């Protein structure tokens, strides 16, 4: 068994700082989103992905894969959103086991109303704290890590 490569003090400080920032940033942005729009982060993610899809429709399996969710988890969440009138689920014509998700008028109105406050929160709590050079660095490193994780 290979000997572990423990983090250096410098690396550990970066790792711990990142983890703490991620937790606090997610909590703050989620709190702002719920208080301003009544939407959860998960609601917002579903609605924003559907609003950007061709015809504002996606297969449940495709959306689950895109969001890195299990189909079961997304299906349960979609049921709750459907009960609130935000999305509509239909049987997939070419796959009897699949579902198509469609953004309803109410869902469209909800994402349109929530977006300005959400982007203001992201800007206030992250973007405006950074310099343009730091934003470039953040974009580069997040894309590199995502690319590695998707391999």
Keyword list:
151 residues, mainly alpha, Arc Repressor Mutant, subunit A, globular
Structure, explained:
The structure is a single chain. This protein is mainly alpha-helical. It has a domain at 40-117: Winged helix-like DNA-binding domain superfamily/Winged helix DNA-binding domain (Arc Repressor Mutant, subunit A), CATH 1.10.10. It contains six helices and three strands, in the order H-H-E-H-H-E-E-H-H. It has helices at residues 9-37, 41-52, 60-67, 71-83, 105-125, 132-150, and strands at residues 57-59, 87-92, 95-103. It has a three-stranded antiparallel sheet with strand order 1-3-2. A hairpin with a 2-residue loop joins strand 2 (87-92) and strand 3 (95-103). Helix 2 packs across helix 5 (105-125). The two termini are 25 Å apart. The mean pLDDT is 95. Pfam families: MarR_2 (PF12802). One of its GO terms (molecular function) is DNA-binding transcription factor activity. InterPro entries: HTH_MarR-typ (IPR000835), MarR/SlyA-like (IPR039422), WH-like_DNA-bd_sf (IPR036388), WH_DNA-bd_sf (IPR036390). It comes from Asanoa ishikariensis. Residues 1-147 form the HTH marR-type domain.
List the helices and strands and how they pair.
Blueprint lengths: L8 H29 L3 H12 L4 E3 H8 L3 H13 L3 E6 L2 E9 L1 H21 L6 H19 L1
Antiparallel strand pairs: 1-3, 2-3
Count of separate DSSP helical elements: 6
Give the termini distance in whole angstroms. Answer: 25 Å
What would the average pLDDT be, to the nearest integer? 95
CATH topology of the domain at 40-117: Arc Repressor Mutant, subunit A
How many DSSP E strands?
3
Unreliable stretches covering 5 or more consecutive residues: none
Could you tell me the strand content as a percent range?
Answer: 5-15%
Categorize the overall geometry.
globular
Q: By CATH's scheme, which homologous superfamily of the domain at 40-117 applies?
A: Winged helix-like DNA-binding domain superfamily/Winged helix DNA-binding domain
User: Helix- and strand-based class?
Assistant: mainly alpha
Q: What helical percentage do the residues reach?
A: 55-70%
């Amino acid at each position: 068994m290979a000997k572990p490569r423990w983090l250096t003090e410098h690396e550990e400080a970066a790792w711990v700082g990142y983890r703490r920032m991620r937790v606090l940033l997610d909590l703050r942005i989620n709190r702002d989103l719920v208080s301003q729009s009544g939407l959860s982060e998960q609601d917002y993610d579903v609605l924003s992905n559907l609003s950007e899809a061709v015809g504002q429709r996606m297969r449940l399996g495709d959306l689950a894969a895109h969001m890195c969710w299990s189909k079961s988890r997304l299906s349960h969440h979609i049921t709750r959103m459907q009960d609130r009138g935000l999305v509509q689920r239909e049987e997939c014509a070419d796959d009897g086991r699949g579902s198509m998700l469609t953004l309803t008028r109410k869902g469209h109105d909800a994402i349109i109303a929530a977006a300005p406050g959400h982007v203001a929160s992201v800007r206030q709590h992250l973007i405006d704290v950074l310099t343009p050079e730091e934003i470039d660095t953040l974009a580069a490193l997040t894309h590199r890590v995502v690319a590695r994780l998707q391999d």
